[in-house]
Amino acid sequence: MIRPFVTIAVFIALWWAVTAFTAIPPFMLPTPQAVAEALWGQAGYLAANAWVTFCEIMLGLFAGTLLGGLAALGIAASRTLQRWLWPILVLSQAIPVFALAPLLVLWLGFGIGSKVSMAVLVIFFPVTANFLDGLRRTEPGLLDLARTMNASRLNLLLHLRLPAALPAFASGLRIAAAIAPIGAVLGEWVGASSGLGFVMINANARIQTALMFAALVILAAMTIGLYMAVDAALRRLLRWAPGG
Amino acid sequence: MVPPGIELRGLGLRYAGAAVFSGLHLTLTAGEFFVLLGPSGAGKTSLLRIIAGLEPPDEGLVAASDGAPLAGRVSYMAQQDLLLPWASALNNVMLGATLRGQLRDAARAAALLEEVGLTHRAHARPAELSGGERQRVALARTLYEDRPVVLMDEPFSSLDAITRVRMQDLAARLLAGRTVLLITHDPFEACRLGHGFTILSGSPARLAAPTRLPGLPPRAPDEDGILHLQGELLRQLAQGGA
Q1: CATH code at position B233
Q2: B116: domain range?
Q3: Inter-chain CB proximity A141 and B75 less than 8 Å
């Protein structure tokens, strides 16, 4: 439990050493103290914007997980959906999400909608792909057993393939929790009037590098916290899964 | 529930162009415990899967002695216990009802768990159970299906010797009156449980003429003649495998 703190302490010490013993100007790399001061001095401003980003991430995570889960279930349940939808999903990954951000802002505006959509776009595929992988890898022995029991297709999916795929779904959800902030912040960079991404772009333009770093620290802490919370919840829920 | 006998008529199976077995004929008497032995790779599991309706044969057919189709009258117990890791022992026993969308009969499932001596473990998940306990849950799940024909593919092979003897007694008692086909590697198991046995061996594999075992199963492990029978069977297996 102590290791992460040691890692962070060493990292901050190295950072401080670089600022103290090299000639890098503060507008390129502010000192840890300056970032701490920015965090403290602008706490209210940062908290308000962090809350906006947090809401975008949570909404995106919720909607993306729901949509991704439903897509995977649909593809697993229907051959037609598998033939039509899956190739489109794979192809959609060839389009960089970066390139879509300006479009989404144009279509959905400067508000929260475009950011939530970006987060959904970023996490949809990992959630779907992992869950679908799990749904397709049901232990063949179990499928045989179910066949001798005259299982109906729907019950087989709901009572056997779905629960058996939950550990795989959980892997997708962990990835989603880690990358959903990327989508939200990306949306904010392109066009927003609030949020941590907005704070960064704004501070960058005014060469308030310490404030930019402060926003970055909050974003990182938020992402790590979210990942750990999701991971802990999944471990609790899937206690039956080996290694889960 | 009157169990049907089972007839294999000229069953054949090919794999990657080569015949695994062909022209298999066998009659399983209704209500008897019949044992199938043979070296690994002879196609015993494939034969069982064909009888269970899980894969089609390349030639021949499987018929029930009463002329009605076998589908829906066979339950299958595999080498692995195949318990759902997320479900309690009780819910595992009722898996068939869940998968068919039927009302689940918890009282009957509990009674079956009692039969296999696991009342106190009804709410435990498979990970909390020992290997023997898991196989007993699997046996209760098989019994919950209440099918007249039961096919078993080495269900006790991964258990230690003492647990295995207990499972054999339990299976013999609880499956009595059904038409059972059991695959095993273990001549001792065959001699304890079978009304008769046959050996599947060779390439392509053929069935030896079925042998009737004297007396009635389950034979006690220390019963006179068991050791002799076992030795004879071992000799036959060794010759067939050579």
Answers
A1: 3.40.50.300
A2: 82-146
A3: no
